[in-house]
User: Fold these one by one.
Assistant:
Number 1:
Amino acid sequence: MPFDPETIRADFPLLQRSIRGVPLAYLDNAATTHKPAAVLAAIDELYRHHNANVHRGAHTLSIEATEAYEHARRIVQRCLGAEDPSEIVWQHGATDGLNLLAHGLGETRLGPGDEVLVTALEHHSNLLPWQAAARRAGAHLRIAPIDAHGVPSPDGFAAALGPRTRVVAMPHVSNALGTLVPVAEFAARAHAHDAVVVVDGCQAVPHLPVDVAALGCDAYVFSGHKTYGPTGIGVLWARRALLDELPPYQTGGEMIRSVSFEAAEWADPPLKFEAGTPHVAGAIGLGAALAYLATLDRSAVADHEQALVSRAARELARLEGVRVVGPQQGRVGVVSFTVAGASPHDVATLLDQHGIAVRSGHHCAEPLMGRLGLTGTVRASFALYNTHAEVTRLVNAVRDAAAMLG
Ligand code: PMP
């Protein structure tokens, strides 16, 4: 059955909104996505009927809340193709997970003279924690190069690996350009150097089926709110052996086996990394979001999104004064562009007058923008509920903005 975004839109209450009297065209999905009614209902159900702290109680509500919370963990496990639910660690978001990994691997794997390799595509969240970890350890941060379209070159990546490379971090998909990184190929090359491979999957999980075993990475993180789930919840997956190796990032309640005044023994993963009361509603909401996605034909969704992205890139590139940046092929979810003579912020402000929500600026990838010789772009980013009519509105509004501002 062909995928019908109009049917899907009915599942997302916020999409009924108007902005300045016109229907909202929400094209800022790489920043955050809207939530289907199933997610709102799951959160509402928890707070109305089962609210309790998890893992601590003998009473019925606590047992019910714990069961729903752990059920959500198993949904994530299935979604990522992970071997065991104990490999799924709840985090506040991708940023939280990447900081945990950088702190832990900084301690267990990095020493003076060692190297961490990241790509030039990195979101600040997958750059700054590694900068800090390298600095603390006396290690060096190396940057795998990209070409003028923001595509990492396999040869450049291979050349940046060396005998001292201990950790390699990369995005699965670039949030600023939509570049799809060949993770499996890069992970295999990194493993040939015995490096640990960390993947930032924030912009992949909403768009692509992800199988961590097929990718061959060692750790993978993503944020719930970019995948139709709530804010404040994210996921860190890592191989069980790596989780066993890593020290806890935070200590406190819930993450111990035993404690004395002098010392403590940690619980097994994932609890070792989940100190304090977790975001129970967030985890359950994210589970509901992934369960919702699993009811859809994911390859039809991907085809639909791909058609929107390709058409938007093609038609924007034809406009006078507009330059589309990023990869020529294999772009996922995102179309980034500039308008000659206009600041990205002014373009985004004008588009908002037409009810069109896009993002402008460096997209938390300032070094990437510098490499491309840009200070920022306008970014239209797509989700399963976007339509061809919205692409038409975007292209027409950008044409008007280019004429007015350029
Ligand atoms: N990595 C990428 C590629 C992202 O797009 C984002 C969010 N813009 C992050 C990391 C950080 O995610 P969060 O703010 O949800 O922790």
Number 2:
Amino acid sequence: MKKIQSVRGMKDILPSDCKIYRSIENILMSSAIQFGYKEIRTPLLEDSELFIKSIGDGTDIVDKEMYTFVGSKGNSYSMRPEGTASCVRAIIESGSSNTINKLWYCGPFFRHERPQKGRYRQFHQFGVEFTGVESYEADIEIILLTKYMWEKLKINPKLKINTIGDSEDRKKYTKNLIQYLAKYEKYFEDDDKQKIKKNPLRILDSKKESIKNILIDAPKISNYISKGSALHFEKFVDGLIKNDINYEIDLHLVRGLDYYNRTVFEYIDNTENTQNTICAGGRYDFLFENIFNKKVPALGFAIGIDRLIEFLNYDINYNENIKFYVAVLREEDFAYAQKISGEIRKYSDNFSILVDYSCSNLKAQLKKANKLEANYCIIIGENEAAGDSIQIKNMNSSEQDTIVLNEIGDYIKTKFVL
Ligand code: HAM
């Protein structure tokens, strides 16, 4: 019989890892809120056209990686491979494209890639989109937000930046790049030839040494950038310097999604991982116009949370709950145990209370409390239930007190900073 198991490239995030995800997400979320961003939640499923028109035909994501299916009425739907296109659609659909929008989102995304460390078929992104501001100041602010996040996470990934100009600049550049590459056709493998045919700029970030060598003398996009784009980039770089942000200009940085123009950037971890881009983004001033016929300048970035966690190496402080384990010795006292648990929960959101329903002997229940790393064990036996009281044992010091029900509040207030 077929063994049922999780789908390849889609992993469970078990409770011990969930707390790492949650604490990182909380840091990213509170940072974005401090920069004026508001949360948006878009559907996991969208009309496939949205991604084809935004990310672009000829990109790996659209050509090979989308989970797409046809609905009963013949419409094609895709699981979202990224969040920018959905935000753009949502802004248009909600009628808010005339105002400035600062949105953040966090959740699962889907790409049918070859799974490996740091690369999954269901992965998690924390992203922001900032729409309605054309000025380079917005580009600087977005980088300041990432800097703020890295400081809170106590990491220091390397920032790479580039400008890819506007679409006219890119057209001219692409034409010359193709002409240059044609001279080396015999050195390219089939997949490279496909890339050059469909999306020539993608060849620039090839990891193959042979191609890197060919590219040394290739035309540079920086020579094709219009005055406006060049000035935008210059002022952006100047802002980074003024804000003490370290960066490296990487003329080969082009990004794998078609919608970008002008500023593009990536943060790379500086460990040995092969999948090392933990955050990426840039401007997409023409995306609204191309899909919805509305001119709205915009920019944003997304952080790959799974990669970030691998990069962080789990070196993070959690805001741990204070755990109470409730040991109940007789079945008839479960209702009393639940009443006591409810009473304690009221005092702090940070209290986590677990009732033992096994009715096993006290020693066994204390052993379980220990195993679960409970901070306190509340003991309820015949005497406690009869006397409206509890015994509370500090699992660290083994100190044990008897408290009557109407004094629980005072007891908690003296023991904990609430
Ligand atoms: P992206 O470069 O495709 O950009 O993805 C952003 C980040 O998501 C990557 O740098 C990486 O950390 C993570 N990521 C991507 N694919 C995977 C995967 N298969 N497994 C694990 N992590 C992955 C975007 O998605 C753009 N929407 C970013 C953006 C927002 N640009 C403007 N606004």
